[in-house]
Design brief:
Strand content of chain A: over 45%
Largest interface: A-B, 25 and 27 residues
Largest sheet of chain B: 7 strands, mixed
Helix content of chain B: under 10%
Shape of chain B: globular
Radius of gyration of chain B: 13 Å
Number of helices of chain B: 0
Number of strands of chain B: 11
Number of strands of chain A: 11
Number of helices of chain A: 0
Radius of gyration of chain A: 13 Å
Order of helices and strands of chain B: EEEEEEEEEEE
Oligomer: heterodimer
Structural class of chain A: mainly beta
């Protein structure tokens, strides 16, 4: 089983749509979780951390379900500029090592 | 401009060449990482340096040789590479023990082995 698993997509959505990405992780001892965004031919950049209580940053909402070992990212009112690959990332327990999923590609069209 | 700078941005090298990738961070971090990103694969962790000591080597072939002379600089020395080593090589840094804050990545070196 992969350590971090994501649907690669692509997700093609119109502007203004709401889109959700899911991710599962295999190590139940994992404690820290993130979503990174990677634009084409660019480096990954931290989008947001994922907290147990769920957290929101503008149009972006992240949720964590520890029992199911599942992380989600919801994007509301999609913009063209949201087109990118979204990487689900888990911090390996008791380390500083980040484990990356393959990413989910989002394409927002006019 | 990120606080992590990688050079060169692009590199084409033959299988018999020797080259080095350079990474420099200006964030006061004390842990640095090399990742490899190939098409349709997740980022693969290659090496971890924490407080200038190598703490992780993920079964990377010996044709890749890292060097960390101080907490701000990280190198990846390359020799006798194979075409399948063509990929985006990303450097990242963080504060050791503060993995909860994620990494800062450099822009990467896109390597093509011919």
């Amino acid at each position: 089983r992969k350590e971090v698993e994501q649907d690669p997509g692509p997700f093609n959505v119109p502007e203004g749509a709401t889109v959700a990405f899911n991710c599962t992780y295999s190590n139940s001892a994992s404690q820290s979780f993130f979503w990174y965004r990677q634009d084409c031919r660019k480096e990954p950049k931290l989008l947001m951390s994922v907290y147990s209580s769920g957290n929101e940053d503008g149009r972006f909402t992240a949720q964590l379900n520890r029992a199911s070992q599942y992380i989600s990212l919801l994007i509301r009112d999609s913009k063209l500029s949201d087109s990118a690959t979204y990487l689900c990332v888990v911090l390996a327990p008791n380390t500083d090592k980040l484990i990356f999923g393959t990413g989910t590609r989002l394409q927002v069209f006019p | 401009e990120t606080g992590v700078t990688q050079t060169p941005r692009h590199l084409v090298m033959g299988m018999t060449n020797k080259k080095s990738l350079k990474c420099e961070q200006h964030l006061g971090h004390n842990a640095m990482y090399w990742y490899k990103q190939s098409a349709k694969k997740p980022l693969e962790l290659m090496f971890v340096y924490s407080l200038e000591e190598r703490v992780e080597n993920n079964s990377v072939p010996s044709r890749f040789s890292p060097e960390c002379p101080n907490s701000s600089h990280l190198f990846l020395h390359l020799h006798t590479l194979q075409p399948e080593d063509s990929a985006l090589y990303l450097c990242a840094s963080s504060s050791a023990g503060d993995g909860n804050y994620g990494y800062t990545f450099g822009s990467g070196t896109r390597l093509t082995v011919v």
